[in-house]
Design goal:
This protein is an all-beta fold. The chain has one helix and seven strands.
Length: about 160
């Protein structure tokens, strides 16, 4: 079964991003820290009838601001998404992500991830995210996700191997 996630909706996304750069000895600027805070406003909170109240709604307009489902009922505003990325150079990159739901007036998502490329041919990734959402009952539902990945990178100049 294929699920359609496109909706007939109008939205407005606003954000502010702060970046910190470091100039290397060769004169090239590298981004060291990036922090983005964003939120969306939905003009039609029902997404032209696509939103089903009381259920987990996964729609493209919602997924573009956060990978976690938050619209269980009609709403105009998405949670505020804070995404801090640190790339100190070399082999490591880190990300910290927080989401504050203004409707529920609480932090709903917190997570971090770290990426490491100790040798040029391999990349290691690990991360953990905690997401809580309010149910219609007094209980809250939580979903913890942990991820790990090891990827072999193609050496420069080689085409990736495609199997037919």
């Amino acid at each position: 079964m294929k699920t359609e996630t496109l909706t007939d909706t109008n939205e407005f996304m606003y954000s502010i991003t702060q970046r910190l750069f470091h100039r290397a000895g060769d004169g090239q600027a590298d981004e060291v820290v990036s922090w983005r805070v964003a939120q969306k406003y939905f003009f039609d909170p029902t997404f032209n009838g696509a939103l089903v109240p009381g259920t987990r709604n996964v729609l493209q307009a919602l997924d573009s601001i956060t990978p976690f489902a938050f619209a269980e009922e009609p709403r105009h505003f998405s949670p505020i998404d804070s995404d801090l990325r640190v790339s100190p150079g070399g082999d490591y990159d880190a990300q910290i992500r927080l989401e504050y739901d203004t409707r529920r007036q609480r932090l709903t998502t917190a997570g971090h991830s770290v990426e490491n490329s100790p040798i040029s041919e391999f990349q290691f990734y690990g991360g953990a995210f905690l997401h809580r959402q309010q149910q219609r009952s007094a209980a809250s539902r939580k979903s913890d996700s942990y991820a790990g990945r090891i990827r072999r990178l193609e050496p420069p100049g080689l085409e990736p191997l495609l199997l037919a």
